[in-house]
Amino acid sequence: MMPRDASDANDPSSDSSGGGSRWSDLDRPPLNADALRRALVREGGLWTAIEVVQRTGSTNTDLVALAAAGKAAEGTVLVAEEQDAGRGRLDRTWTAPARSGLFFSVLLRPTEVSVARWGWLPLLAGVAVATGLARAAGVDTALKWPNDLLVTVGDEERKTGGILAERAGEDGVVVGIGINVTLRENELPVPTAGSLALAGARGTDRDPLLRAVLRSLEDRYGRWRSVGGDPVASGLQETYAAGCATLGRLVRAELPGDRSVTGEAVAIDGDGRLVLATENGVQEPVGAGDIVHLRPA
């Protein structure tokens, strides 16, 4: 299975909006696939292939299928200039105008790490993205457990990105990352959404942003994998907690089965779960669910 319109990924005459040149929005130039490969694909490095397609439904869906068919090695990166069926957590949709953000998926095969620790991968990706964006865009990005990326627009905390990890066969994980880069106020899907531009980023050129994020992810993943995925020895647990905007807040966890738990978020445990101190004095770990911030940190 190949992403739709892969053939026009680098065709300057193609336009995802259906007419005119893909350069018609000068604030949103296309990614340079060749330059990205020159900068990131190297012998002994994590990234082995970088493909940029003009349009697809979901880079995660495409890359999972390629991995299942044996057509993608670890370190494959699939980037779309536009997604029309992007997915977030809890089967939510993720859409944005063409070239307004970074929409990409990476294939990882952490065979040295116990599968029990693979749940740390979306949290690891969150730390890597926040670190890369801070360096390249000068924007402080906080993490909402488990994998939302938050920025401050004015005095409001808004979601500017998200992460979705999916198994790909017996030994692979596809991590999908979506980041709103130049989304304008009148393009926001919901009032609580944001973008790097709205948060005052010093630069919104997506090529250096993507390079910074992928280099940060390579570094963080390498350290985690080298110690067998140990979240303490790799520094991941401590770093994630330090950047987690959920800790210290009163939150409501909306859990599978129409159950909810309210309490103060007090810790990230060794399995990457959010620990809530409930009003009846019980500390309850939450491994899956939707978190609603009820009180500012």
Automatic annotation (TrEMBL):
Keywords: Biotin, Ligase. It holds the Pfam family BPL_LplA_LipB. Residues 51-225 form the BPL/LPL catalytic domain. Residues 1-29 are annotated as: Disordered. Gene3D superfamilies: 2.30.30.100, Bira Bifunctional Protein, Domain 2. The keyword Kinase does not apply. Its EC number is 6.3.4.15. InterPro entries: aa-tRNA-synth_II/BPL/LPL (IPR045864), Biotin_CoA_COase_ligase (IPR004408), BPL_C (IPR003142), BPL_LPL_catalytic (IPR004143). One of its GO terms (molecular function) is biotin--[biotin carboxyl-carrier protein] ligase activity. The keyword Ligase applies. PROSITE patterns: BPL_LPL_CATALYTIC. PANTHER family: BIOTIN PROTEIN LIGASE (PTHR12835), BIOTIN--PROTEIN LIGASE (PTHR12835:SF5). This is biotin--[biotin carboxyl-carrier protein] ligase. It comes from Streptomyces chiangmaiensis. The lineage of its organism: Bacteria, Bacillati, Actinomycetota, Actinomycetes, Kitasatosporales.
